[in-house]
Predict the structure.
Amino acid sequence: MNIRKIVSFTDDTHAEGGRPVTPPARTAVVLAVLENPWAGQGFVTDLAPGIEEFASPLGELLAPRVAEALGRPIEAYGKAAVVGLSGEVEHGSALIHTLKFGDHFRKAAEATTLLPAVEKRACAGTVFDIPLKHVTDATIRSHHQSIEVRVADAPGPDEIVIGLAAAAQGRPQARLAPLSSER
Amino acid sequence: MSAARKVLTTTETLLRERGRPVEPPVHRASAAAVIRNPWAGSGHVDDLSATAAQVAPGLARELADRLAASLGGTAQIAAFGKAAIVGLGGEIEHGAALIHTPYFGNVLRELVGGSSIIVFADERGPAGTTLAVPVWHKTAAATRSHYQSVPVRVPDAPRDDEIVVIAAAATGPRPHPRIGDRTTDPAVRLADLETR
């Protein structure tokens, strides 16, 4: 696995809507910029061997890093794959949409729900939003949120950016009625 | 509590460049605090010094602490830089007042263990402005291998009445630096170049 760099972001929000957020709301993202394992091979019908080789090591690399960057129990989580212009979205999906990848994060977060995801193909420097949902109950509205990130020089045409995102809480000043109130 | 609405930190670990390993890997970090422009709504203010002296030291401390935490301590920091992005309702002078005085620069320099003048960038722009924050060596500014920039962007800041105050650092040089230094440069004079 040829990883060019690992990038992390943390956001501590101390105020929202003019009111203090106590304790500050923290979100974190860790991204790996790697060579597309299928680059230069034309259309590859069977992606399974590549998934077998790379998906689990990627999850294993990223999960502890995002947990460490957050530094608190993970309440909401999400994932991302942004494929460079010469690849297929299917290549990114292959790396993140298997239990081999996701279970590392699920275990680190003591989570039970599916990981929401963003997948897209784009040029380097693209802005993308990673959706997050609650780690044990995806219907908890207070925890629906997105984190916007960008890596200036990635993904290159033959690269993929794979990422995990975590939040230590729901939205700052969340105050929507729960889903159950509408049923 | 922090004076900032939010604080963003970024780190980058450079492992490979054009397929070649970067050994040891270079870590780069930025810390960006989003604060309300202390002069917002005051019209033209002649004397910015009192407010700058009050606001800047705390910002420098908070940003230096975050850089050190991100990079494994101040001893790991080899290069540093600073920047301000001023929201559209403010003046570049407001950002300058916060980063270009001893109340910011000396505090940051001392906390990071540097002695160089601190290289900088500033810009006025909308929320989501990307700024390449330059860094250079913290004790030997002319060290060419360490000239590099750290891109910083806060999606929802600065609002018109806000300022993003930034400090950035790197643990080492650019990947595979190979453009020499002052000690290896030939003497270059304009007269020698006229035939080129």
